[in-house]
Amino acid sequence: LILPFITTTTTFWVSVGDGTCQSVRVPVVANILPIPQAPSVATVSRCGAGSLTFTLQNLVPGSTLFIVTEPGSTLVQTMGVQNTIHTVTLNLVQTQNYATYVVQNGCTSLVSNFSGVIHAVPAPPQVTDPLIRVCSSGGMATFSAHLSTPASVLELRNLQGNVLAVDNNAPFVITLPVNQSQTFVLVAKTSAGCESTPSRVQVVLQATPAPPTSTEVEFYCNANVSVTFTVQMGIPAGNEIRMYDSPQGGNLIATATSSPYLLTTPLLNQTTTFYISAAIANCESERVPVIARCNKEQSCSAPAAVRAQPISANSATISWESVPGAVCYILTYEPLGISGAQAQTMLVPAPTTLVQLSRLLPNTNYIIRIRANCTMCSMNVGSISGQWGSTVFQTLPSKIISSYSEGDVPLIYPNPTQGMLFINFLDNNFSHSSLALWQSDGKLVYSQPRLKESLVTLDLSDLSSGVYILVIQNQEHCYTAKIILNK
């Protein structure tokens, strides 16, 4: 039997019959069951993947609750409803849409849609300077960072989590007055309220350095020259000395970061004032002036009439004409034709114009060079003559006479040598003789004032490769030989 369309509970009576006779009618009730109310649930969000708890309300006790994903209607949870309120916890890795409904007595409620929203967690601020030094005289700290997450802001907080300042626009810079050394954190925060992990920044209250000190420098400026100031730190000290060309602003000329603090000027040809300060990071003392004072004078003349007279095999006298205004002379002498030989230098105070050189090599050519210095007795300060006065001479040969005749000459081997040298007098006359070994530049490296046996062994392995002069002599006679050490 198909009932007509009904809107309320209705009673019908039914009977059976054969067309003539009919049974008693009996009642049949058609009940209209109510459609259950749809659950009420709100969208919930969180920062980063994790669990989200949803509260479903207006549930029908005795019904069955269904939660499915949208789209796709994949069943997530189903459960019997005991109360009008129920909580559900879901784990999410990304934003997900859901639908929920209840079924009672075969009747399905309307569907309620809701979402679990996952907001991205911003990256931590990339701090420009994790250690900020603040001058005690200024007391302003500047915090700056780069935020890689779009639409985020920079928050400055103390360690208790209190927000002290916010910057909403790039470049992200926050300036804050400080009166003590302390640690702050910088946090990136999005409009959804998601926060990055904090980046720590330490602020150190730094005492302003005391100004440095330096005496003025006098120099001779017939041509462009650079001069160097030696600067002394004050107390409290900085860790850098700076030189400027102006008492304020201007250009930074030079810096020095380690003791001794030396600052070199650009090329100068006149008296110039510079300004120096001590600094630690952005804490800088006041600038104090220091003067490079230019003195102009004529250069020294070159010494003339340089003469050399050998006295013996090992010495010579050197003389030259006096130079007006000279305070000293710079004299160098160098053996010629000897591999590895180096020039020797000596300073001769004026008015001396005659010196004797000793420890020369016998029968050897030397070049003598002399310059005049008209400022102070130094090789690199002041006005020095533009040219050398020079001459070449040869020392006298050593004597080889009867007691050291050709048959008495000792046997020296091996020569060249790699280290060990043997001198064998072959049982000839060696008593009352001395032995000495000289470098080619005239430096004594070994001596034996009295020989005790006819075979002498020398170990030269500690010496540098080069040419050496062996000298054997007694009170009357002398023998020399060139020794080549080749290690």
Describe the overall structure.
- Mean pLDDT is 87; it is low at 400-406.
- The chain is elongated.
- The strands form 11 sheets. Strands 4, 6, 7, 9, 10 and 11 form a 6-stranded mixed β-sheet that branches.
- The chain has 487 residues and is mainly beta.
- Helices cover 0% and strands 48% of the residues.
**Helix- and strand-based class?**
mainly beta
Shape: elongated
Number of strands: 41
Summed up, the helix count is 0
N- to C-terminal distance: 127 Å
Mean pLDDT: 87
Strand content: over 45%
The major beta sheet can be summarized as: 6 strands, mixed
Which segments are poorly predicted (pLDDT under 50) over 5 or more consecutive residues? 400-406
Proportion in helices: under 10%
**Rg calc:** 52 Å
List keywords for this structure.
487 residues; six-stranded mixed sheet
